[in-house]
């Protein structure tokens, strides 16, 4: 286990009754113009004067969640691949993990199947699809009803089948084959344009493919990450998911995006307070450890 450095405390905000809230206070107007991440643009940044999160805050949350959860096993194969590329990890979390050999098209369709369902159900649906149809050409040629029955365990089978077959049909017409490996040679903006052309593919799916299959520095925002970002005051209270995605990708250092995203996502699934569910609505997974993001211990941020 890697020894983590002690993180600095983030100031707590006062509640109306004078008590301290466990969450960090939003930046003051005088400080919002400071510490703007290099490379950010006022033309595309929705909150150019909002100074959170700082690199130090991002690193503190990453370190605390890594110490609390360890690195999530479901993402280790992608982290291993990144360590083989340009990022070197000192932690032992990736030992024994095989690098990801998943194709870009496999990853895209797997991500589609993961929408609005549990990870277990989506993985079951993907495995069923791959075992029933040896190639994506077979999926494209198959009757839609047959494909629906194959992935029904993942939910929304008609919608997902229509999306998958639509992507395969469009890709075949555009490129002459069912392969997305050419995306590996494109820039992030070019990849976004290419994937966004497919009907049913939204920003979160594109960002997931960028971060996992294409190993690019991007920060997808799902409901867990969106809620925790607002809890930590990393975005203004009025921010929506789209603006949160743009803002966090401008503010979070590239070298922290992958780990931080995986860890916040994992934490949001098990921590009642951070996910905004409240202590009276426990989740299926019991989480009885002290949450470092709530500032309840002397070592918390």
From TrEMBL:
Residues 1-16 have a biased composition (Basic residues). Residues 1-55 are annotated as: Disordered. SUPFAM superfamilies: DNA-glycosylase. One of its GO terms (biological process) is base-excision repair. It comes from the Eukaryota. InterPro entries: DNA_glycosylase, HhH-GPD_domain, HhH_base_excis_C. Pfam families: HhH-GPD (PF00730). Residues 113-270 form the HhH-GPD domain. One of its GO terms (molecular function) is hydrolase activity. PANTHER family: HYPOTHETICAL BASE EXCISION DNA REPAIR PROTEIN (EUROFUNG), PTHR47203. This is HhH-GPD domain-containing protein. The lineage of its organism: Eukaryota, Viridiplantae, Streptophyta, Embryophyta, Tracheophyta.
């Amino acid at each position: 286990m890697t020894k983590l450095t002690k993180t600095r405390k983030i100031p707590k905000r006062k509640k109306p009754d004078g008590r301290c809230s466990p969450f960090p206070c939003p930046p003051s107007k005088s400080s919002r113009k400071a510490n703007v991440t290099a490379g950010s643009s006022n033309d595309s940044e929705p909150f150019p004067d909002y100074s959170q999160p700082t690199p130090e805050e991002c690193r503190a949350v990453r370190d605390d969640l890594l110490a609390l959860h360890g690195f999530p096993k479901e993402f280790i194969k992608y982290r291993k691949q990144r360590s083989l590329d340009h990022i070197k990890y000192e932690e032992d979390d990736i030992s024994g993990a095989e690098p990801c050999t998943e194709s870009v098209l496999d990853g895209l369709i797997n991500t589609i199947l993961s929408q609005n369902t549990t990870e277990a159900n989506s993985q079951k649906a993907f495995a069923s699809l791959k075992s029933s149809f040896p190639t994506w050409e077979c999926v494209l040629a198959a009757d839609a009803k047959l494909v629906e029955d194959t992935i029904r365990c993942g939910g929304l089978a008609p919608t997902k089948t229509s999306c998958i077959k639509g992507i395969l049909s469009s890709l075949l017409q555009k490129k002459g084959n069912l392969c997305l490996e050419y995306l590996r040679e494109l820039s992030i903006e070019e990849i976004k344009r290419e994937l966004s052309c497919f009907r049913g593919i939204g920003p979160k799916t594109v960002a997931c493919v960028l971060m996992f299959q294409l190993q690019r520095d991007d920060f997808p925002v799902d409901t867990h990450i969106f809620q925790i970002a607002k809890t930590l005051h990393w975005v203004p209270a009025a921010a929506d998911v789209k603006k949160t995605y743009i803002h966090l990708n401008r503010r979070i250092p590239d070298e922290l995006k992958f780990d931080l995203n995986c860890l916040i996502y994992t934490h949001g699934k098990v921590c009642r307070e951070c996910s905004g569910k409240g202590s009276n609505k426990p989740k299926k997974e019991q989480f009885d450890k002290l949450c470092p993001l709530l500032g309840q211990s002397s070592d918390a941020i």
